[in-house]
Amino acid sequence: MLSNQIQEKLDRELKKYPVNQRQSAVMSALRFVQDEKGWIAPEDMADVAAYLGMAQMAVYEVASFYSMFDLEPVGRH
Predict the structure, then answer these.
(1) Is the pTM of this model over 0.85?
(2) Whole-Å CA distances, 44 to 14, 18, 38, 63
(3) Which of 12, 23, 48, 70 is 20 to 30 A (C-alpha) from 58?
């Protein structure tokens, strides 16, 4: 489940897009999750998909395409 902080940030981000274009905020949502947790777990992608009304595979496609998103925990060094 997305934290309240992520949901608040995401709600502010969604105001930038038309109501029928919620999926446009997917990169922001993934960034918010990664900033908070350090990486993006499959459960987090499912939560983002549900929140934005997208298919889980569509969120995974975005997250796996861009190298700025970490899909597994990353070491400190």
Answers:
(1) yes
(2) 18, 24, 12, 11
(3) 12
